[in-house]
Amino acid sequence: MSNTGSPTNMNMGRITFYEDRNFMGRSWDCMGDCPDMHSYMSRCHSCRVHSGCFMVYDQANYMGNAYFMKRGEYGDYMNMFGWSDYIRSCRMIPMYRGNYRMRIYERDNFGGQMHEFMDDCDNCMDRYRMNGCMSCHVMDGHWLMYEQPHYRGRMWYFGPGEYRSFRQMGWGNMRFMSMRRIMDSWY
């Protein structure tokens, strides 16, 4: 079975999900976004990213814990990521070539300190004396943001757009402490 969702550019990604560890059991190919994989597979223990980059989630509709996957093999991702549940949804990240620009804000609704990024930042506190951010505006590029410095902890994907309140997006008091660009060389 294949999901031929319509990616937003001509560089399509492809990921194959397998029911069992080490690429065994029934498989399903996906070439775009899939908000609920349950109709294709009851479980998923391994996957192979043939091309492109994807965010995978342990809940339907791109919710729950998330993990970034670039080209490669993930024979036992549950142990690798420390997850106790299966991948339930995935989102393809469109390839981007160009400048990167994002503004982060200390508080909801673009309040408090503001800093503009055009490159990776491994520690907001060290660089700007900022205790993390609660809202952001991505003007250019695709970004990963992490809850801890040095690209550790839980991560989230941010594409172009305004994100006024991480709290209202269901992330509670999540404060992001590091961020990095998703580069075209990762594809």
UniProtKB/TrEMBL annotation:
<protein>
    <recommendedName>
        <fullName>Beta/gamma crystallin 'Greek key' domain-containing protein</fullName>
    </recommendedName>
</protein>
<feature type="domain" description="Beta/gamma crystallin 'Greek key'">
    <location>
        <begin position="141"/>
        <end position="183"/>
    </location>
</feature>
<feature type="domain" description="Beta/gamma crystallin 'Greek key'">
    <location>
        <begin position="52"/>
        <end position="94"/>
    </location>
</feature>
<dbReference type="Pfam" id="PF00030">
    <property type="entry name" value="Crystall"/>
</dbReference>
<dbReference type="GO" id="GO:0002088">
    <property type="term" value="P:lens development in camera-type eye"/>
</dbReference>
<keyword id="KW-0273">Eye lens protein</keyword>
<comment type="function">
    <text>Crystallins are the dominant structural components of the vertebrate eye lens.</text>
</comment>
<comment type="similarity">
    <text>Belongs to the beta/gamma-crystallin family.</text>
</comment>
<dbReference type="InterPro" id="IPR050252">
    <property type="entry name" value="Beta/Gamma-Crystallin"/>
</dbReference>
<dbReference type="GO" id="GO:0007601">
    <property type="term" value="P:visual perception"/>
</dbReference>
<dbReference type="GO" id="GO:0005212">
    <property type="term" value="F:structural constituent of eye lens"/>
</dbReference>
<keyword id="KW-0677">Repeat</keyword>
<dbReference type="InterPro" id="IPR001064">
    <property type="entry name" value="Beta/gamma_crystallin"/>
</dbReference>
<dbReference type="InterPro" id="IPR011024">
    <property type="entry name" value="G_crystallin-like"/>
</dbReference>
